[in-house]
Amino acid sequence: MADQVVVPRFTVVTLGVADMRRSIAFYASLGFARKFRATGEAVAFFDTGGTVLALYPWDALAQDAGLPDMPRASDFRGVTLAWNCRSEAEVDAALDWAVGKGAALLKPAQPTDYGGYGGYFADPDGHVWEVVVAPGIDLGDDGRVRLPD
């Protein structure tokens, strides 16, 4: 067999959630478009503009990965999701939007030590999101992040 070329890709973020209906409603309320609805509440997929956000029952995700589902981490897990913005005003609006949809504000937006501006919220299962405008990281007209070489 010939050597196969492997191209690394980041395509899906899957979050383990306690309550599928609640989490589906939360992410839909943020404005993410749910796709592939034929999966019902077994798994939910959302188009995020370049990658996919998947929601899956916490215990089933742990079992699928061969990990115990208990005890569940109740505090920071060392992972954040990011929502890059074009301006400080957009950061403030995005944080207000998320909190208005049921997110918990973890840290109000403020200047960062690297010259940006950002804050944090948590979804209903405690998954942490950073909302930020960062110098050197631009967003294209399509909303996708563009990094310098």
TrEMBL record:
VOC domain: residues covered: 9-134
Superkingdom as given in the UniProt entry: Bacteria
Pfam family, one: Glyoxalase
InterPro entries: Glyas_Bleomycin-R_OHBP_Dase (IPR029068), Glyas_Fos-R_dOase_dom (IPR004360), VOC_core (IPR037523)
Protein name (record): VOC family protein
Record organism: Bradyrhizobium ontarionense
